[in-house]
Amino acid sequence: MAWHDQDSWLTAAFAPKLSTIVVTLLLTLLLPILLHHFIYRRATPTTLPTFLLLGPSGAGKTALLTLAERNQVAATRTSTSPLAVEALLPEGFTPASSHYRSPGDPTFERSRCFLLVDTPGHGKLRHFATAQLADLSNVRGIVFVVDAAAVAEEAGLNEAAGYLHDVLLTLQKRYTGAKTSKGPKEIPVLVAANKEDLFTALPQHLARLELEKAISRIRKSKATGLKDSGVAMGGEEDAMEDEREWLGEGGEGPFEFQQMEEVGTSVTVLGGNVLGSEGSDVKGWFEWIAEHL
Ligand SMILES: Nc1nc2c(ncn2[C@@H]2O[C@H](COP(=O)(O)OP(=O)(O)OP(=O)(O)O)[C@@H](O)[C@H]2O)c(=O)[nH]1
Ligand SMILES: [Mg+2]
């Protein structure tokens, strides 16, 4: 049967037959819908973007979590287990991924959803946070909450800085230990200096400085400790140099959060307060979350 025969498929395709019209109509209507679904499925991840709440005990992580979840503050007590809640970015904040979406788009609402994971800050319960840090595949950012009034004092400062040091070191190791040449996805860190409503709280730039100084001290004592043990065992220093057990390059001199950019971690310090007589001030933190959502 040649293509120009009366009952060939090509002739039928051009003939004014009902079946031809129906098939063409269905094809033109369904193809865009199917294509949309196919592309949309691939572009939209099934799991929500996650933000991890870390920080010493009493810093205000659970208070911030309840504020993000219910838009109001509630009484909290020391957490003993991790808690994940689904939160919605408040009105007025646009996720960075949705800058070109119109507010009427149903996906706009969905793009404002995120998962907030609270961890206990008590020293004996840190393994929960360590477990969260071990799998960062869905994590878009880490919010490290510190009590700005507590870091004004030696003990509080050392605790917060020690914990922050360990978190940053984990992120650095993840970056330097990556197998692919592209390196893993960058995970930004927000140091949320909470309780700025208190009279004794350090303002954000001072909190930043104090934390940097304290981390410098920790890094230095760690480096000397490593060197000492290396000498005691008669080991070579080169071997330790490779391990990169300290933050930033070299581990000499003062530590600055900016040094973390080299290992794919940007650190931002922002002040705010969840509670307070004049209401809460968490605008900067939500802006940061929106920027990374
Ligand atoms: N003044 C003031 N108090 C706050 C603020 N945020 C939290 N608090 C108080 O700080 C205390 C500790 O807050 P939590 O949210 O329970 O602390 P946490 O970080 O979850 O502590 P852990 O669960 O032990 O890790 C609570 O009594 C809060 O009321 C704030 O912005 N200002
Ligand atoms: Mg808590």
Can you describe this structure in just a few lines?
The protein is α/β, with parallel strands linked by helices and 293 residues long.
Shape: elongated
Give the CATH level 1 class of the largest domain.
Alpha Beta
The residue ranges in which pLDDT falls below 50 over 5 or more consecutive positions are 234-242
CATH topology of the largest domain: Rossmann fold
- The CATH architecture of the largest domain: 3-Layer(aba) Sandwich
Main beta-sheet annotation: 6 strands, mixed
Strand-and-helix sequence, N→C?
Answer: HHEHEHEHEHEHHEH
Structural class: alpha/beta
**Strand-residue proportion:** 5-15%
Strand order of the largest sheet: 2-3-1-4-5-6
Q: Please give the share of residues in helix.
A: 40-55%
Q: Which molecules are bound besides the chains?
A: guanosine-5'-triphosphate, magnesium ion
User: What is the end-to-end distance?
Assistant: 60 Å
- Radius of gyration (CA) equals 27 Å
**Number of separate helices:** 9
**For the residues shown, what is the average pLDDT?**
84
Identify the quaternary structure here.
Answer: single chain
CATH H level, superfamily name of the largest domain: P-loop containing nucleotide triphosphate hydrolases
Q: How many separate domains?
A: 2
Q: Report the count of strand segments.
A: 6
GO molecular function: GTP binding; hydrolase activity
Keywords: Endoplasmic reticulum, GTP-binding, Hydrolase, Membrane, Nucleotide-binding, Receptor, Transmembrane, Transmembrane helix
InterPro entries: P-loop_NTPase, SRP_receptor_beta_su
Subcellular location: Endoplasmic reticulum membrane
